[in-house]
Amino acid sequence: MADIRLVDVSIRDGNQCLWSATGLRTRHVVQVAPLLERVGFHALDYISSTFMGIAARMHQEDPWERIRLTRAAAPTTHLQFIGTGFRFISWEESHQELMQLVYDRLVEHGISRFIVLDPMHDTEAMRRTAAMVRRAGAAEVMGALTFTLSPVHDDGFYAGIAKVIAADPNFDRAYVKDPTGMLHPERARTLLPAVKAALAGKPLELHSHCTIGLSPITYPHTPELGVDVLHVACGPLSNGSSLPDAQRVVANLRELGHRVDIDDGALALAADFFRGLAAAEGLPVGVPQDYDAAFLRHQVAGGVLTTTRRQLREVGLEDRFEAVLEEVPRVRAELGYPIMVTPFPQMVCTQALYNVVGADRYEHVPDELIRYVLARFGRPTAPVDPDVHDRILGRPRARELAAEPPPPDVGELRRRFPGVPDEELILRATMPGDQVDAMVAAGPAVTHYNPALAPVLGLLEQLARRPALSSLELDRDGLRLRLRRHPPDPAEEAHAV
């Protein structure tokens, strides 16, 4: 029997999968962080550069402030950052000096655990990033083995990457990241022991999504296969396309005799908080998924499928949807089997759509796919088909993109944005200036949130938008509320009893 630890993904990955990455704001995170701290999670899958950009762009909240506040609210639990090492917020390549500054500032503000994920499994790129993160002072560095199905990605492929991680002192551990939820128990029985043996004693974690209902079945069997840590989500932020429910995983592991040392009461309270938040804000609740065998063929998640169908409908070609899905595996093979996680599913599906509706395959190619073939996202796992490679790079647009200037270094950025703090400099280097201006103008984020008050606060917001309404009286269930827009004297100011 094994001692199993847990990593909670609710704040980042659960929020991304089920709430479009926008459901949680600083006030929500700060309120739930002490509960998550009490649970006893090994780490919280907390943030990525994409989430930092969303905080500023969508909510006008300073992501650096959010990290500091969360660190204060959960001082002993690792806060985790996941990144590729070559970009920050934008999908444009960032200068390595800027990336080092990013890691330095993240550690300074409270991020202690980093996941190094190279989208092409370029081990040299992974090692460079791990060295940068360690130089910044990270307490824990983990290498990602991103699972997918293809003729290239067999057990030996992943064991080879694990050997590189095992030999590099800048890596403390590794995890199998299954973003599309395709790791079934039979494959786990060969893959996980092979990876564990190659790690030579370094811990192994598993992060597997519930997209087609496999991970809740696979998880209970993984401790006997060498997994030390499982990634889970809380309450309504579990299931669906997110990760397995923490309470159910714990119950299943204990039923099989494994030990999971967590505070069950605190876990229940955290799940209840997220349930109350979902109800108050009208956010969806994750539900168990049905098995879909077709997904193993095209490996395209639901959001991308929905977007592709909508695009076809807009041009009156929705009847070609199945043809596009048939084209997806062919395009993916021609591109060297990229793993179908953002941004690669979007690239593959867009090209498949162009190939189906166009007069000739690869007649039209989006800029991002040209950059892919130019290795701007890293070296492809398998070679791009030579004919496709030549056709894509032989066009004038490819020559223009190949001649793009290198990304600016930190010195150039300081000259471009004189006098701003490093944290703001990083945002201005990677985001539109007006979005950063709006964030700065908004000031400090609200830090208190009580889901039970959401209906009252929503009512007040609606009243504020109706200047013709001068007064309101509400008497319901023991709450008496009297509001006046312009009280004649202090005795009649708005109050609640």
Please tell me how large the radius of gyration is. 24 Å
Span of the ends, CA to CA: 56 Å
Fraction of helical residues: 40-55%
> Which regions have little confidence, pLDDT < 50, spanning 5+ residues?
492-497
- Quickly name the level 1 CATH class of the largest domain: Alpha Beta
Q: How many domains would you count in the coordinates?
A: 3
Please state the structural category.
Answer: alpha/beta
Percent in strands? 5-15%
In terms of topology, how is this protein built?
Blueprint: E1 5-8, H1 10-18, H2 26-39, E2 43-48, H3 49-59, H4 63-73, E3 78-83, H5 96-109, E4 113-116, H6 123-136, E5 140-146, H7 155-167, E6 173-178, H8 185-198, E7 204-208, H9 215-218, E8 229-232, H10 246-255, H11 264-281, H12 295-298, H13 302-314, H14 321-334, H15 344-357, H16 367-373, H17 386-393, H18 396-402, H19 410-416, H20 422-430, H21 433-442, H22 454-464, E9 471-476, E10 479-484, E11 495-496
Parallel strand pairs: 1-2, 1-8, 2-3, 3-4, 4-5, 5-6, 6-7, 7-8
Antiparallel strand pairs: 9-10, 10-11
Helix pairs in contact: 2-4, 2-11, 5-6, 7-8, 13-15, 14-15
